[in-house]
Amino acid sequence: MDGMLKSGMIPSLRARDLGATIDFYQRLGFALKGIEPCGGPPQWCALGRDDAVLHFHVMDLDGQSREPALSGTLYIPVDDVDRLATEWAGLTPYIWGPEDMPYGWREFAICDPNGYTLGFFQKAHGQPASPEA
């Protein structure tokens, strides 16, 4: 079934505090792309920067935890890891990096107010690109 899946996955993540989440990402240059409901306390939002989009919500959804939970890292490709890390210096601590990884990426990672780890990466200079991005 070639061609069934498209790139551009949009994570929809549980937030502890939607206002604090919006503030955090806006400090990092993300724009509020949508918020629902418009007239009452927000339950959902879309935040975006360049081609990256993240959704956050505080709704109780069937089959989902009432607390934010993710055991891995959400990786977002970037054109210039070092430039982004310099831009964000002092705005949020880095969990690691920027550094060249043995699998061919140059990356750094942050932790958002909900405990999610987000990694930002590009192919490291002079290293084979693996795993695929």
Count of runs of 4 or more consecutive helical residues? 2
- Percentage of β-strand residues: 35-45%
User: How many distinct beta strands?
Assistant: 8
Give the averaged pLDDT, no decimals. 91
What structural category do the secondary elements indicate? mainly beta
Biggest sheet record: 4 strands, mixed
Low-confidence stretches: none
Shape field:
globular
Q: N- to C-terminal separation?
A: 20 Å
Whole-angstrom Rg: 16 Å
The string of secondary-structure elements, in order, is EHEEEEHEEE
**Helix residue percentage:** 10-25%
Strand order across the largest sheet: 1-4-3-2
Write the layout of secondary structure elements.
Elements: E1 12-14, H1 18-27, E2 31-36, E3 44-49, E4 52-57, E5 73-77, H2 81-88, E6 94-100, E7 105-111, E8 117-123
Parallel strand pairs: 1-4, 5-8
Antiparallel strand pairs: 2-3, 3-4, 6-7, 7-8
